[in-house]
Amino acid sequence: MANPNQVVYKDFDIVFNAHPVTRKLNTLTNSDAIKRALKNLILTDKLERPYNPEFGSDIRRRLFETHDGTVADEIASDIEFAIKNFEPRVRLLDVRVDERLEQNGVFITIVFRAENQTDSEVVNFFVERVR
Predict the structure, then answer these.
(1) DSSP character for 18?
(2) Are 79 and 95 in contact (CB under 8 A)?
(3) Residue 1 has pLDDT above 50, yes or no
(4) DSSP 3-state of 110
(5) Looking at residues 107-130, what average pLDDT do you find?
(6) How many percent of the chain have pLDDT more than 70?
(7) How many CA within 13 A on the CB side of residue 21?
């Protein structure tokens, strides 16, 4: 039986598909909802959201900088700042950024623990430079 005091995080699935039986919008809960929110936060550029110009991480801009060995650290710092300021449901454990110069992008790994969970979760994604 579920604990009535346990917090459940719930977000709409951004693809807005209807459930085949109930015909209601699909939802994501707990770690799945947080993973989607983290990815959206990281992929949002600053100044992209009206009335909230600081929201986002602005990493796409950094992909076009000269890769001198510091870009991965700067991207990781941007991600940490964005998560700490805009995603209160998360305790950030680790952020790893792996530069993939041959693919013109970076592979990002975020390790976190949701506030209502005891186990850590991982979200991975690749961000590439688009010309």
Answers:
(1) B
(2) yes
(3) no
(4) strand
(5) 90
(6) 81
(7) 0
Task: Kindly provide the b/e burial profile for residues 83-107, where b requires at least 16 CB atoms within 10 angstroms of the residue's own CB.
Answer: beebbebbeeeebebeeeeeeebbb
What residue type is 4 in one-letter code? P
Asked if pLDDT for residue 90 goes beyond 70, the answer is yes
Residues 6+ apart with CB under 8 A from 42: 56, 57, 59, 79, 82, 108, 110, 125, 127
Say if residues 112 and 96 touch (Cβ distance below 8 Å).
no
Non-local (6+) Cβ contacts of 31 within 8 A are 114, 117, 121
pTM: 0.79
For residues 77 and 58, what is the distance between their CA atoms, to the nearest angstrom? 11
pLDDT tens digits for 54-84? 999 888 888 887 777 788 899 999 999 999 9
Q: What are phi and psi of 113, to 5 degrees?
A: -130, 125
Kindly give, in sequence order, each residue whose CB lies less than 8 Å from that of residue 72, ignoring residues fewer than 6 positions away. 97, 98, 99, 106
